[in-house]
Specification:
Elements (H helix, E strand, L loop, with lengths): L4 E3 L7 E5 L3 H17 L6 E5 L2 H8 L9 E4 L8 H11 L4 E6 L5 H5 L5 E4 L4 H18 L2 E5 L4 E5 L3 E7 L2 E6 L3 E4 L3 H7 L5 E5 L2 E4 L3 E4 L3 E5 L5 E5 L5 H15 L1
Parallel strand pairs: 2-3, 2-4, 4-5, 5-6
Antiparallel strand pairs: 1-3, 7-8, 9-10, 9-13, 10-11, 12-13, 14-15, 15-16
Helix pairs in contact: 2-3
């Protein structure tokens, strides 16, 4: 098996990279993934397999190579380790789902520092792999969904993942993203429909919040923290407290 072997580019537009110095693992893993996508009636992604991290990074950072959506990485390989490969891939695509595949549990703490999606043990458990791929596909579909923000001057497309919250103040509706504030001409009813995708909740008639950014909440107030350090607050109506709490706990469980 040559480094960077690619095949299976069909309907999904998704790209999965595999890296392990044991070619038997690469063959087994790709076979399992193909089986999962076939069983679920999904188009096959493009697969790219590598036997060392340096070759992966050289190929994946080439200007004409599409960004990977998922990566399955061994830890101990010749050259750069899978941990550092994963960190580099996340720099290129913050939405990538990184799976660390290894028989060494010693690397768990280091892997978790850069938000590994899942830690899979060798020998591979196919049923567990299938469950985790299902979860990864769900998160990718939610967070990379394009959302059109209409303002008086322009229409801007952002990923759902970039929206922290929507707030209504009288007739004015603002959309706080991770890096700027937009004043939207869409009303709250429209926003509730646009953001009906599992990770958003409407805890108060004047607010819709992305549960990803919730740092804490009481029975009346929700605190949100953006990646750039921005801090925001949203009201939580007392009569909606239980519904919001239940939705948030379900969200946390789904994202594990």
């Amino acid at each position: 098996m040559a480094n960077g072997r690619m095949q299976g580019k069909e309907e999904t537009g998704m790209r999965i990279v595999l890296c392990d110095d044991d070619e038997r693992i690469l063959v087994q893993l790709e076979s399992y993934l193909r089986e999962y996508f076939h069983q679920n009636g999904l188009g096959q992604p493009e697969y790219a397999s590598y036997t060392d991290g340096d070759a992966l990074l050289a190929a994946e950072y080439a200007p004409d190579t599409p960004r990977a959506d998922m990566a399955f990485l061994d830890v101990e390989m010749p050259g750069i380790s899978g941990i550092h490969v994963g960190a580099r891939l996340q720099n290129r695509n913050p939405y990538i789902k990184i799976f660390i595949v290894t028989c060494y549990a010693d690397y768990l703490d280091e892997a978790m520092k850069f938000h590994v999606f899942r830690y899979l043990s060798k020998p591979l458990d196919k049923a567990r792999l299938f469950r985790n791929v299902k979860d990864a596909l769900y998160q990718i579909s939610v967070y990379t969904r394009p959302i059109a923000i209409e303002t008086k001057a322009e229409t801007v497309t952002r990923y759902a993942d970039e929206i922290v919250m929507v707030e209504a103040m009288g007739r004015r509706v603002t959309v706080q993203t991770v890096d700027r504030l937009y004043e939207s001409v869409q009303r709250m009813g429209e926003w509730e429909k646009l953001l009906d995708i599992g990770c958003f909740a409407r805890p108060h008639r004047s607010f819709i919040v992305n549960m990803k950014y919730v740092s804490s909440f009481s029975d009346t107030l929700i605190s949100l923290s953006a990646p750039d350090g921005g801090q925001y607050s949203a009201y939580l109506a007392r009569r909606r407290y239980k519904g919001f709490r239940d939705a948030y706990m379900l969200y946390v469980e789904t994202m594990r």
